[in-house]
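Input structure tokens:
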């Protein structure tokens, strides 16, 4: 109970400090957001602090850590990104399932020894059966983890990266995705290696466990405990913010944006006060504050800047959705749907994600391929711009280094390789061979970044070429950051498929939904690590998670979400330290699994 109190206090203390000051203000969510930012901005700035490179360029230190670790693991495991790719596909297809049924646990049992009363090699000695202990299949574990990474970042984030770094950012995004495959292999192998199984066969795993147990095995018990607790706290915060509120908020914004119509639907102009509107030619949404002296006073939701328009100008250029101000209703519906799924645990989550994720990817990538087919004549020109931008010293973001940074930033923030979150989902797989799931996991950055993000990038670049050829104007200018990436991507697809915004709106909601249910599992695993596996602890976490879905849908909480995103990427600090220390353990598991595959093939 003391741990529970301390963690809850950590999250609510900043709000309690200014709640009384904010209570009487109009737009209380924005007031809370501003005050929360005052108390937490130091943490956000620390996590996303940038190191100057000269020439006006800088790079976030978290990006250096993520990319540096990815390069290290790629070299250490001799290009496992490529050499293990087809083996990984074989594992997902069930080609090596016989290794689970006829695997011999004796060797692992002989080498295992107790740490804190628990055997290190839990996969062999706790509740083993012919399938290998676990709760989900290789494919389900892959889709559960993918559902947390394939999402709004692939749709909106890519547009932002290309708008800043130009087409060349696409090339470096692909490179970062490829080397990130090695990091995913390492962390997910460890996730299975050091997982725990309770008396009901429920799996508990992830960085919390391999940091605590793995480092204890290597005579670093106290370091492991500290890193594990730090990771768990950050993971809980990230699950409420970036993995929940942000997803719900952006899903509602897309639905609201899609349902917009002319301002003339309102009989009285005063009816739009406090509603969100979109102004033609401006990417940022605006909130109508008041109508004074024949002018409409608005404020930007992104920057807070005030804008004044004449009533006639406002009527001709503004669009408003009938759903404006109804985010809480959308949030309640999403919270109910999320609650129904997450109460069932990882099996229920996997049963949902193994259907949603393939459907989402096929629909989205399929639409991208249709557009590429329609504009096939522009594909060579698009690749020419991508390669020229990747290596040219005249890039729009400060030359090749600036373009490289944008590509690497998008890939790292999209596939989360090194953050450790995916290993929590992969730990629940049915297997006796940790390296088998590590190999499956390396497919994630390939699907998320190399496939989905690249498809988005190609559509954006080709749409810019196509629209410029027809109208003389680009969809968006390279070198100028777009603020509403989802809308830009929607317009890019709509330029070739007029009805695609219907599909994209549904995809955004599904992407957000699948991300929320997966992050609920990540946060819950961290929660149980800190507070135990009692039912009351489970209900408290899942109830809080569903409440945050409603808050995220209804409120403008940019600073809260920034803080939560910072917590997600703060997870990489303890995780990367543990991965580097435990690399030899992964190497041993990989050699063991390769030897089993070789022996199986020799018998056939």
């Amino acid at each position: 109970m003391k741990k529970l109190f301390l963690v809850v206090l950590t999250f609510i203390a900043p709000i309690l400090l200014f709640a009384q000051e904010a209570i009487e203000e109009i737009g209380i969510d924005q007031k809370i957001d501003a005050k929360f930012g005052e108390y937490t901005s130091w943490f956000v700035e620390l996590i996303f602090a940038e190191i100057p490179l000269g020439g006006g360029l800088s790079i976030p230190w978290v990006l250096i850590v993520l990319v540096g670790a990815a390069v290290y693991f790629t070299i250490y495991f001799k290009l496992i990104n490529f050499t293990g790719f087809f083996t990984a596909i074989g594992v997902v297809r069930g080609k090596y399932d016989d290794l689970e049924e006829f695997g011999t646990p004796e060797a692992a049992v002989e080498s295992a020894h107790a740490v804190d009363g628990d055997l290190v090699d839990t996969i062999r000695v706790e509740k083993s059966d012919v399938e290998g202990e676990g709760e989900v299949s290789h494919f389900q574990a892959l889709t559960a983890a993918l559902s947390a990474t394939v999402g709004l970042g692939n749709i909106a984030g890519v547009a932002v990266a290309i708008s800043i770094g130009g087409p060349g950012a696409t090339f470096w995004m692909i490179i970062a995705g490829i080397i990130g495959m090695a990091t995913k292999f390492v962390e997910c192998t460890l996730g299975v290696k050091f997982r725990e199984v309770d008396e009901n066969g429920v799996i508990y795993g992830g960085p919390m466990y391999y940091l605590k147990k793995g480092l204890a095995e290597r005579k670093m018990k106290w370091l492991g405990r500290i890193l594990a607790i730090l990771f768990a706290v950050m993971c809980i915060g990230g699950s409420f913010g970036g993995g929940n509120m942000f997803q719900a908020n952006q899903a509602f914004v897309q639905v609201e944006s899609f349902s917009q119509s002319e301002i003339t639907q309102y009989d009285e102009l005063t009816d739009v006060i406090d509603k969100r509107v979109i102004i033609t030619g401006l990417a940022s949404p605006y909130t109508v504050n008041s109508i004074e002296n024949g002018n409409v006073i608005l404020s930007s939701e992104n920057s807070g800047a005030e804008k004044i328009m004449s009533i006639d100008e406002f009527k001709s250029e503004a669009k408003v959705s009938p759903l404006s101000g109804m985010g809480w209703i959308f949030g309640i519906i999403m919270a109910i749907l999320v609650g129904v799924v997450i109460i069932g645990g990882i099996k229920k989550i996997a049963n949902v994600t193994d259907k949603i994720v393939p459907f989402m990817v096929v629909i989205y990538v399929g639409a991208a391929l249709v557009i590429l087919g329609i504009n096939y004549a522009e594909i060579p020109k698009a690749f020419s711009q991508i390669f020229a931008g990747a290596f040219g010293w005249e890039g729009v973001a400060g030359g090749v280094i600036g373009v490289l940074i944008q590509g690497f930033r998008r890939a790292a923030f999209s596939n989360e390789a090194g953050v450790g979150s995916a290993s929590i989902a992969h730990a629940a797989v049915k297997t006796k061979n940790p390296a088998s799931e590590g190999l499956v996991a390396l497919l994630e950055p390939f699907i998320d970044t190399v496939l989905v993000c690249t498809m988005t990038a190609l559509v954006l670049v080709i749409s810019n070429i196509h629209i410029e050829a027809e109208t003389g104007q680009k969809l968006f200018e390279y070198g100028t950051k777009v603020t509403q990436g989802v809308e830009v991507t929607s317009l890019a697809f709509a330029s070739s498929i007029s009805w695609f915004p219907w599909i994209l709106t549904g995809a955004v909601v599904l992407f957000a939904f699948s991300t929320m249910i997966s992050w609920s599992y990540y946060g819950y695993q961290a929660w149980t690590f800190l507070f135990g596996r009692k039912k009351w602890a489970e209900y408290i976490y899942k109830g809080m998670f569903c409440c945050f879905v409603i808050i995220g849908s209804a409120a403008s909480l940019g600073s809260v979400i920034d803080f939560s995103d910072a917590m997600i990427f703060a997870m990489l600090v303890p995780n990367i330290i543990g991965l580097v220390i435990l690399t030899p353990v992964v190497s041993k598991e990989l050699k063991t699994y390769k030897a089993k595959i070789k022996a199986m093939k020799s018998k056939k």
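The chain has two domains: 60-259+327-414+456-603, 261-320. The radius of gyration is 24 Å.
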